[in-house]
Structure formats: structure tokens, C-alpha cells
Specification:
Mean pLDDT of chain B: 95
Distance between the termini of chain B: 11 Å
Oligomer: heterodimer
Structural class of chain A: alpha+beta
Mean pLDDT of chain A: 96
Strand content of chain A: 25-35%
Strand content of chain B: 25-35%
Number of strands of chain B: 5
Radius of gyration of chain A: 17 Å
Order of helices and strands of chain B: HEHHHEEEE
Number of helices of chain B: 4
Distance between the termini of chain A: 10 Å
Helix content of chain A: 10-25%
Strand order of the largest sheet of chain A: 1-3-4-5-2
Helix content of chain B: 25-40%
Largest interface: A-B, 34 and 37 residues
Chain lengths: ~150, ~140
């Protein structure tokens, strides 16, 4: 069982940047071929200041968090994790080259099936270099205890 | 996307579906690298077996990225307000995923007209793998 005392825990704040080359790789891996997602000139022509991050890429940037020590501290075993839910609320677009700030807290922890499964809810606020609110992410990890 | 198209959106409208090639190991290896998700359960069969799984399986976020394509091929990404998914089933190797969606609600927030889209992925056997919803500005 994951101790519910970790509810409210704030994880170390970090910055991450999507490089254009990584976004082109992501487009290739997901079958995205539209020019505004892979070509800067086409992105500009579509009114974007740079290559846009596709809708789920903020999750990939969150995976670049420099420390996952919080998982060990909470007793989370990586091979027992399943991704239960993922949500995004968007406030503005994010673009290649922007250093985005990620601020995460453990919003909730609860269990089901008599403690066989723990659910860890993480909420992350993302802001851009101008301090503008880009998005909120909500992730639910399912941890199998047996 | 033209505003005329958005003006015509009504309850029950279906989004043009998106069907992908069957998932294979290359898809998963590329997505692991591209998405920064290096969890070995998706790329290393030995690790997957030790974790009690018969084989590697697809990242939930790969299917969610495909759902993102479903949405942004229908409306400009700048109109996307919310996007969420529940991973209800595992997408295995060989599964051919179709992403679909339909308009289930029209409403207004702070003077902005919006539509809620129910979205899902299912494999070639009709088994649902992801259920979710998205909100777009009209």
C-alpha cells in the first residue's frame, strides 16, 4: 500500500524544452505527416511562431523530469505501474525551443480491490518562459500491489 | 479549418475515423525513443515476461497520440481546450487500432461556444482500449 501521507507532496520543479528534431521524430513515430508539425516554414505559414507541440507531447516532456526519487520514496515499483488515465487542459499552445516549467504535486492517492491496487494522481502545471499558463496535466498511475 | 465547418457542427456528428497499421515492435521502439518513455515493459520481452506479461505491449500514450491526430485533423489544434483518456484495455502487438469520435454536447463557457467529443480507440475485433473525451472551441 502506498502511504496516503504523500498526498500534497510537491515534486521538484524542473524545466524542459521540446527540440524541433525530437518533434519530427515524434511525428514519424505516430504517423503524423502534416507539414505544420514537421516543417518550420509550414508552421509559420499556418500562423505558428515555431513547430507546435502536438497535444500529448507535454507528457513526454514531463518524462524528462531529472529525478524520479519520489517514486522510490513512495514505494512505487516501476514494473508494477500501469497508466490508468491521462488528461490535459490547454490554455495556450507550446512550441519547439521554449523552456517550459513543470510544477507537479501528488493530488490524491486511493486504493481499490481491498488494497490490491493503488492509484496515484499527479497534477502538473506547465508555464512558458513568459510566465503564461500553457496547460495542466493530470495523470493517474495504477500500482499493482499483488 | 474554415469557420463554416465549425458552424455546421451538431450533436451526433461523427469525426472522420483514423485507422492505423497493426502495432509491431518497430512501432513501439520508435515511440519509446520519440516520446521519452523508456519503460522496458514496452520494448524488452524478457523484462515484460518477468513482470508477468506474455509479451511487450503498446504504450497507452501511443494510442492517445493517435487520438490527438484524430482531433487535430478535424479541427485546428489551437481550438483544443481539453483532452483526456482512460486506458481501459491493453493494446497488444498485432492490434490494428481505429480512433473514432462523435459530438455529444454543445455548450458555452465564458462566451466561447464549445463542443464535447466522446473519443475511443478499438482494435480490429471491436474491443475498446481507450475511452475519453475532448473539448474544442467552435
Amino acid at each position: 500500500m502506498i502511504d496516503k501521507k504523500f498526498i500534497g507532496l510537491r515534486l521538484p520543479v524542473f524545466h524542459a524544452t521540446a527540440e524541433a528534431e525530437q518533434l519530427r521524430f515524434f511525428a514519424k513515430a505516430t504517423g503524423e505527416t502534416r507539414a505544420e508539425y514537421v516543417d518550420e516554414a509550414a508552421a509559420h505559414a499556418a500562423g505558428h511562431p515555431g513547430l507546435p507541440l502536438p497535444p500529448t507531447f507535454l507528457f513526454s516532456l514531463e518524462l524528462k523530469a531529472p529525478s524520479t526519487a519520489w517514486r522510490d520514496e513512495m514505494g512505487i515499483v516501476p514494473s508494477r505501474i500501469l497508466h490508468g488515465e491521462q488528461g490535459f487542459t490547454y490554455h495556450r499552445m507550446a512550441y519547439a525551443g521554449e523552456s517550459l516549467k513543470f510544477e507537479t504535486r501528488i493530488a490524491d492517492i486511493y486504493d481499490k480491490k481491498g488494497g490490491a491496487l493503488d492509484f496515484v494522481v499527479r497534477e502538473t502545471r506547465v508555464s512558458n518562459p513568459a510566465g503564461e499558463h500553457v496547460a495542466d496535466l493530470r495523470s493517474v498511475l495504477v500500482h499493482r500491489n499483488v | 479549418m474554415s469557420s463554416a465547418h465549425l458552424d455546421c457542427i451538431k450533436l451526433g456528428d461523427a469525426l472522420p475515423a483514423l485507422t492505423l497499421a497493426p502495432v509491431n515492435r518497430t512501432t513501439l521502439a520508435l515511440f519509446a525513443g520519440a516520446s521519452n518513455d523508456h519503460n522496458a515493459i514496452h520494448i524488452d520481452i524478457d523484462y515484460a515476461r518477468r513482470a508477468g506479461m506474455p509479451d511487450v505491449f503498446a504504450h497507452g500514450m501511443l494510442s492517445m497520440a493517435w487520438l490527438g491526430r484524430l482531433l487535430t485533423q478535424w479541427v485546428d489544434q489551437r481550438r483544443l481546450r481539453q483532452f483526456s483518456a482512460r486506458f481501459t484495455g491493453i493494446t497488444h502487438l498485432g492490434h490494428q487500432i481505429t480512433c473514432s469520435g462523435k459530438v455529444v454536447e454543445l455548450f458555452e463557457v465564458d462566451g466561447e461556444r464549445r463542443a464535447r467529443i466522446e473519443i475511443q480507440t478499438a482494435n480490429q475485433y471491436g474491443e475498446t482500449k481507450i475511452l475519453g473525451d475532448a473539448v474544442i472551441a467552435l
